[in-house]
Amino acid sequence: MLYFMGYTDSPTNWTGNFTRAVKEELIERGIAYKMLPPWDWQTRTKCYTNLVETKTSSEDVWLIGWAQSPAIDRVKNMRGRKYGIVVGLTAMPFEPAVLWESEKSLCERKRLNCYDKLFANSHWCKECICRAYPELSDKVVVTGFPIDFSIYHPYLKTVKEDDLVMFNQRFSLEKLHILELELAKLLTAEGYRVMHLTGVSPKKMVRFSPGIKQLVSNASSAGLEFCLNPDKETYHENLAKASVVITTSIADMLPSSLIEAIYMGAVPVAPNNLCFPEFVHPDNLYTPYDLKKIVDLVIKKPDRHHSINQYDKKKVVSNYLREMELI
Fold first, then answer.
1. According to the lineage, what is the superkingdom (predicted)?
2. What is the rounded CA–CA span in Å between residue 115 and residue 120?
3. Phi and psi at residue 33, in whole multiples of 5°?
4. Which residue in 14, 119, 137, 154 has a CA-CA distance of 20 to 30 Å to 160?
């Protein structure tokens, strides 16, 4: 039996999409599985009091969507092979868990060592794991991350607004939010409209992170519009209008936000760093922090092919199943 643990679903991020993509592929391939309730950074109720009573065999397989989940503390004593998916690493200084001072509670090294294999969502992710925890090097496999591109099909015919530039990353330190404001000033001076898509209102942003109060207050005068999206459908409708999407991240292992923007036809502008060179064409990359180059790319709008098909759910789930010896 395959025991699969996905993520807590959320109307404003990628977690539910991941879980559904994997489940759909398992069903389509006729692979029997048992769904385990999620236990991740969003989970409020822990549902694993009875896990120790589960009868398992050495032939069972455990796939944990978030490798650092506390659930592995219990699963490690169950029979069967264990596989964990790594989408972030607290060994990185700008990982959100580090910024929120919760990295110690994750016991990352201890938990990652419980798995037979670790599935890295990018080559950059694998490099980070192996550098931080060299004893895990032989266990790490690059699989990609499964994306169901069909959910974006209803938005592919949306008319682009030529002067609309968007940020669809979190408005947070690890995304260099201060650069968004600086770029908004430069781009509005060039005649562009600059928008930040968010699932959280500016008021809530400030309540969660009081340190960004001044940046949020200055956004309007800098020319940056916050666009609130209460659900995924609204978010997709708005994102589909973007002509260009910029990311200034210094922490991503693999951002589904930029990949979905590319699929919906936006021109990506990304740093020549981290995981971005793995799927963004070189002509759309800039030297980190080079604001002049970013503006130049927005103006030129390089129309290039980007290697995002490698993240199609069928390909990635095949990678999972192959590594777990289920196909």
1. Bacteria
2. 13
3. -150, 160
4. 14
Answer yes or no: are the C-beta atoms of 195 and 166 closer than 8 Å.
yes
Closest CA to 16 of 198, 146, 156, 120: 146
Q: Where in the chain is the domain with CATH 3.40.50.2000?
A: 2-146+312-323, 149-308
**Count of beta carbons in the 10 Å neighbourhood of residue 151:** 16
Are the C-beta atoms of residues 253 and 88 closer than 8 Å to each other? Answer: yes
CA separation, residue 281 to residues 271, 276, 303 (Å): 11, 9, 9
CA-to-CA distance for 316 and 196, rounded, in angstroms? 30
What single-letter DSSP state applies at residue 280? Answer: S
Q: Which architecture does CATH list for 2-146+312-323?
A: 3-Layer(aba) Sandwich (3.40)
How far apart CA 266 and CA 152 sit, in angstroms, is 13
CB 219 within 8 A of CB 226: yes
Q: Where are the alpha helices (DSSP H) in 133-289?
A: 177-189, 202-208, 213-222, 232-239, 256-263
Distance CA 319, CA 272 (A): 27
Q: Which amino acid, residue 127?
A: E
Q: Which residues pair with 227 in a beta bridge?
A: 197
Query: CATH fold of 149-308, please?
Result: Rossmann fold (3.40.50)
Q: Say how far apart CA 21 and CA 147 lie, in whole Å.
A: 7
Q: State the Rg of the chain over Cα.
A: 20
First to last CA, the chain: 14
Question: What is the per-residue pLDDT across 85-130, written as a single tens digit (0 to 9) for each?
Answer: 999 998 877 776 665 555 566 789 999 999 999 999 999 999 999 9
> Is residue 286's pLDDT more than 70?
yes
Residue recorded with tokens 């669809």: 168
